[in-house]
Each structure stands twice: as structure tokens, then as C-alpha cells.
Specification:
elongated; mainly beta; 140 residues; OB fold (Dihydrolipoamide Acetyltransferase, E2P)
């Protein structure tokens, strides 16, 4: 069965998949990243088994990434430390960047070089976002 990663919470090691009219829980221990990062919101995955937990909840088993995602490197063009978000640019493309995507707690300055993966947009904005970000240089 093909599902899409609807949400992944790195600090909690779990997330939710959507597909076939269902929303399904999964734990990172059931995810095969095929040599890539943890799950990325918006990416398609193949699910080997969905089992019922109780009367209403479903849990995915054997979740496998279908395509290995590409890591990008870009420059931070804006970042507001008070609100905790900004933007990173690669070529002509701009990606939303939230502080929660830096798992080591670091935050960039303008001009910082950041490596990241691209996730689908969340919420009402149609802008793609950066996820699983690493600070390569601090900026100025």
C-alpha cells in the first residue's frame, strides 16, 4: 500500500501517514530510510502492513521509503530569532525554515550556510519547507 508521510515528530520518534482514506500512526522503529534521513512530510512510502490498535486506531508496520531524498545546501536570507523562523534560498527557490528543524538547538544568522531536505508545505502556505537542517556556517 502506498501512503504519504503526513507528519513526523523527530523528538518523539513517531508520525502519521495518510492514504486509502485513512490516517495511520507509525513509529520510527518501523521505518526503513534506505540510507537517508528520518521521514519527511509529504514523501511517499510503501507500507507492508497496517494493524488495528483498539477499536479506532491503526498502526503501520514495515514502512519503506520509496525514493532517497536529496540533501540541499542554501543560504539563510532571513531569520527572526524572536519568532523562530525564516527562509533559506537555493538558487531561485526559497524554503521556509523553522527553528524546530535544528535538532541540535543551533540557530542561523543571515548568510549562514544550511544543509537540509525539502518537505511539503504544512498549513495554508504553499511554500516548501526545509527539514532536518544542519548549520554548516554561522553567518553574520
Amino acid at each position: 500500500m502506498i501512503f504519504t508521510v503526513a507528519k513526523y515528530i523527530p523528538k518523539e520518534l513517531y508520525g502519521f501517514l495518510e492514504g486509502e482514506g485513512q490516517r495511520v500512526f507509525f513509529h520510527l522503529s518501523e521505518f526503513d530510510p534506505i540510507g537517508g534521513p528520518p521521514p519527511i512530510a509529504g514523501e511517499p512510502v510503501e507500507v507492508g502492513l497496517v494493524e488495528a490498535i483498539g477499536d479506532k486506531n491503526l498502526r503501520a508496520k514495515s514502512v519503506v521509503r520509496m525514493l532517497k531524498p536529496e540533501r540541499l545546501v542554501g543560504a539563510v536570507t532571513r531569520f527572526d530569532h524572536k519568532v523562530g523562523y525564516g527562509f533559506v534560498t537555493v538558487g531561485k527557490e526559497q524554503y521556509f525554515l523553522h527553528r524546530s528543524e535544528f535538532l541540535d538547538g543551533s540557530l542561523p544568522l543571515i548568510g549562514a550556510e544550511v544543509s537540509f531536505y525539502v518537505a511539503g508545505s504544512s498549513g495554508t502556505a504553499a511554500r516548501p519547507r526545509a527539514c532536518h537542517a544542519n548549520l554548516l556556517s554561522r553567518g553574520t
